[in-house]
């Protein structure tokens, strides 16, 4: 059971209520930065090569799955993304506005990401162990390339990927509290 949770069960959009910036809430916690899949803690990157199975389909990476979910009404585009040779190619295809994006994407994207992360860290025991070993550290996708999923490079971003990983870490621990860093 979780106590003192700062994550409303009905919404993934809590930062406006509880958080200001990464700089404000990381001052007193251990921070683990991650970004590139080949660097330290690169396993937390969506580009890290760890296949996942969701609803009977195998996806090469969480990035492949996430990008494909933007187009649930277009199986051809989903298949093209699923079969993309690299996660970078999958990301480029998913970010292309040549294809019509699902109308509710902004409302569902955090949940889609959390589903992908749950699959990744429950289907690969070594990744689950790595995530749990981070204990109460603040996990930060440190990149100036993304101020929604990452920290914007200077701590001004939302760091949603890091926040979702910390939420998942809490779920995977028995009788734990989810502590916001």
In short:
It contains 8 helices and 4 strands, in the order ααβββαααααβα. By secondary structure, the chain is mainly alpha-helical.
List the main descriptive attributes of the protein structure presented here.
181 residues, mainly alpha, Tetracycline Repressor, domain 2, 2 domains, two-stranded parallel ribbon, 8 helices, 40% helix
* Topology pattern, helix = H, strand = E: HHEEEHHHHHEH
Q: Rg from C-alpha positions? A: 16 Å
Number of helices: 8
- From the 3D structure, determine the CATH topology of the largest domain: Tetracycline Repressor, domain 2
The outline comes out as globular
By CATH, the architecture of the largest domain is named: Orthogonal Bundle
> How many distinct domains?
2
In oligomeric terms, what are we looking at? Answer: single chain
Largest sheet: 2 strands, parallel
Helix percent reads: 40-55%
Going by helix content, strand content and strand pairing, the class is mainly alpha
Question: What is the CATH homologous superfamily assignment of the largest domain?
Answer: YbiA-like
Low-confidence stretches: 1-20
Termini separation comes to 19 Å
The neighbouring-strand order within the major sheet is: 1-4
Domain NADAR: 34-172
Pfam families: NADAR
Protein name: NADAR domain-containing protein
């Amino acid at each position: 059971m979780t106590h003192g949770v700062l994550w409303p069960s009905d919404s993934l959009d809590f930062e406006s209520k509880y958080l200001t910036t990464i700089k404000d809430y990381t001052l007193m916690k251990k921070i683990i930065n991650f970004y590139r899949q080949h660097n330290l803690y690169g396993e937390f990157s969506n580009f890290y090569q760890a296949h996942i199975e969701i609803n009977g389909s195998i996806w090469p990476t969480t990035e492949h799955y996430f990008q494909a979910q933007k187009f649930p009404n277009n199986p051809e585009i989903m298949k093209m993304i699923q079969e993309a040779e690299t996660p970078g190619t999958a990301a480029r295809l998913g970010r292309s506005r040549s294809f019509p994006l699902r109308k509710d994407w902004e409302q569902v994207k955090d949940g889609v990401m959390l589903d992908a992360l749950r699959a990744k860290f429950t289907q690969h025991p070594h990744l689950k162990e790595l995530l749990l070993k981070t204990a109460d550290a603040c996990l930060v996708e440190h990149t100036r390339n993304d101020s929604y999923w990452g920290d914007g490079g200077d701590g001004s971003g939302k760091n949603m990927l890091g926040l979702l990983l910390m939420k998942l870490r809490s779920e995977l621990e028995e009788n734990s509290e989810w502590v916001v860093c």
